[in-house]
Amino acid sequence: MRGLLKFLAPTLGMALLGCGERPHEIRVVASDYALLAPDSVSAGEARFSFENRGRVVHEVVLGLLQRGKGASDIVKAAQASVRLRDLPEHYLDGPPFGAQFAWPGAVSRARVTVELEAGRDYALFCTLRDSTTAPQHAAIGMLHASGQVRPRCTRRPDQRMQPTSASELSIRSRGQGGGHAGIGGAMKRARQFRNRPVLPGLALVGLAAGAASAGPKLPKDPCALLKPAEIQAALAPKATIGPGVPATDMAPVGVSCSFTWGRRTPQWGQSSVTVTVLDLSQAYPGVSDDQLKEGVRAEAMAKDATITASQIAGVGDAGVFKFEPRTFNATGEALFAAKGVYLSVQFHGGDPSAKDKVITLLKQAGSRL
């Protein structure tokens, strides 16, 4: 959702260091539209890094929450377009500590270092918009409200420092830096993420803001949602399409599978179809089904010079088709609230005329959920 569905990051990479003089390294990952970050960290000095795996520009603003405030307060202020400097009047305990900025597919070279207090909650959120008339990203769920800052750990003098968590991302492409306060230099898109589907992302980790969908059973084999013959019939009658390749980096948020064919082209590389299923309870905890539906519909109506979007009828509870000329991505997405999942089928190498064909594949995949 350009307004709602531009948040999700397929995976979160983070590393929390144990006792020692060095700060905790906390990685925050953005997608369209979601923020992934640790749910619980140790008190003490922490250094935040930021990666944008979405297809629009994102930022992450870090601040201390007032006691008793949480995700619903962040969303409410963003919906009211409250200015950053006025957030202490709504939910922040003082001004924000800082912000990091990154172009799509890039890692910010800026770092924000903060002394975390035990027993306090912290907020991460994005205040950017996709257009002058679009809502702030935080208004459609691009936020993270930490649940716990544990007391600072202690260690014996002879105890070696060891990582307490090591779910690290392998970052293969680094661009020029993104700075603080939402200002940064240009960054080149990481090629490895170019063909990833645009995924939804309200609050990937947040405090309760409404009834959450029941946790579904994600497909054990996402490649079984589409058959190579179906893709061939719809998109490439003369091509030979082999078995799909499942992704291994999305659990527990979701699963995906990619099918590729043909020669690489100078315009978009190799043609592919990627089917992705997200667990709503993992991707959007605390977000109601009505909020998710509203976000999908808002994205379909959003005005953006870089993308064309329209609503899809007859598949799931709400659906949207999008085409991005700069990436040659034609994507169909649909919300299946009763099943607790969000489904995406993306055709890389497509054009606007592929709409009906992509929707056909989306319906075929949806029938097998």
List the helices and strands and how they pair.
Elements: E1 14-17, E2 24-31, E3 34-36, E4 40-42, E5 44-52, E6 58-64, H1 71-79, E7 98-102, E8 106-107, E9 112-116, E10 122-125, E11 143-145, E12 148-150, E13 163-167, H2 228-235, E14 245-246, E15 254-265, E16 269-279, H3 280-283, H4 289-301, E17 308-312, E18 318-324, E19 329-336, E20 341-348, H5 355-366
Q: What is the strand content?
A: 25-35%
Contiguous low-pLDDT stretches (5 residues minimum) are 1-20, 153-214
User: How confident overall, as mean pLDDT?
Assistant: 74
* SSE succession: EEEEEEHEEEEEEEHEEEHHEEEEH
Describe, in plain words, how this protein is organized in 3D.
- With 369 residues, the chain is of the alpha+beta class.
- It folds into 2 domains: 14-167, Immunoglobulin-like, CATH 2.60.40.420; 210-366, Protein Transport Mog1p, Chain A.
- The chain contains 5 helices and 20 strands.
- The chain has helices at 71-79, 228-235, 280-283, 289-301, 355-366; strands at 14-17, 24-31, 34-36, 40-42, 44-52, 58-64, 98-102, 106-107, 112-116, 122-125, 143-145, 148-150, 163-167, 245-246, 254-265, 269-279, 308-312, 318-324, 329-336, 341-348.
- It has a 7-stranded antiparallel sheet with strand order 14-15-16-20-19-18-17, with helices on both faces.
- The protein is elongated.
- The model is unreliable at 1-20 and 153-214 (pLDDT under 50).
Features:
about 375 residues; alpha+beta; Immunoglobulin-like; Protein Transport Mog1p, Chain A; 2 domains; 7-stranded antiparallel beta sheet; 5-stranded mixed beta sheet; about 30% strand; elongated; disordered N terminus
